[in-house]
């Protein structure tokens, strides 16, 4: 029996700035992306950069994506890690939305990627809570952190 080895990638989708009236504007809107859109975009980019050879080497599986924090976890074949990472590095849009993908962590086991994802989500929600408190608004980060942690730990 053959055992397929994988790499787990923690990534972040960054919205690219837009030029409006000769000024650079960093939009702070929701990207409205989901895990299927990201998987499909990476798979299509693999075909563009590496042709039929790259398309036939393996599948992309985005296991989890949080649209609030724009952090996701994906699984790729171990033997072609560099091919997938380079493709993600050169991507400039996902589903016609101008954005780029930053690689935050690559690991052979999901446990290290899960702990890093929990930390990223935690710091994001705490920062959001601090910004809301400065404005005098009520924002509970504890519930969102726990919900995110529960979703991340359920990935296998």
Automatic annotation (TrEMBL):
<dbReference type="GO" id="GO:0001682">
    <property type="term" value="P:tRNA 5'-leader removal"/>
</dbReference>
<dbReference type="GO" id="GO:0005730">
    <property type="term" value="C:nucleolus"/>
</dbReference>
<protein>
    <submittedName>
        <fullName>RNA-binding protein pop5</fullName>
    </submittedName>
</protein>
<feature type="region of interest" description="Disordered">
    <location>
        <begin position="137"/>
        <end position="156"/>
    </location>
</feature>
<comment type="similarity">
    <text>Belongs to the eukaryotic/archaeal RNase P protein component 2 family.</text>
</comment>
<dbReference type="GO" id="GO:0030681">
    <property type="term" value="C:multimeric ribonuclease P complex"/>
</dbReference>
<dbReference type="InterPro" id="IPR002759">
    <property type="entry name" value="Pop5/Rpp14/Rnp2-like"/>
</dbReference>
<keyword id="KW-0819">tRNA processing</keyword>
<dbReference type="Pfam" id="PF01900">
    <property type="entry name" value="RNase_P_Rpp14"/>
</dbReference>
<dbReference type="GO" id="GO:0033204">
    <property type="term" value="F:ribonuclease P RNA binding"/>
</dbReference>
<dbReference type="InterPro" id="IPR038085">
    <property type="entry name" value="Rnp2-like_sf"/>
</dbReference>
<feature type="compositionally biased region" description="Basic and acidic residues">
    <location>
        <begin position="137"/>
        <end position="149"/>
    </location>
</feature>
């Amino acid at each position: 029996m053959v055992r397929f080895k994988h790499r787990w990638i923690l990534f972040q989708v960054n919205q690219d700035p837009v030029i409006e009236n000769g000024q650079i504007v960093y939009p702070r809107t929701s990207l409205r992306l989901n895990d299927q859109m990201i998987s499909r975009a990476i798979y299509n980019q693999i075909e563009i950069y590496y042709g039929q050879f790259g398309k036939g080497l393996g599948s992309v599986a985005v296991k989890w994506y949080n649209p609030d924090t724009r952090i996701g976890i994906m699984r790729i074949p171990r033997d072609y890690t560099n091919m997938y990472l380079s493709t993600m590095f050169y991507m400039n849009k996902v589903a016609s939305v101008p954005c780029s993908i930053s690689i935050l962590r690559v690991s052979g086991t999901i446990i290290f990627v899960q702990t890093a994802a929990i930390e990223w989500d935690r710091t994001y929600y705490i920062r959001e809570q601090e910004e809301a408190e400065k404005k005098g608004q009520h924002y509970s980060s504890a519930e969102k952190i726990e919900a995110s942690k529960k979703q991340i730990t359920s990935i296998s």
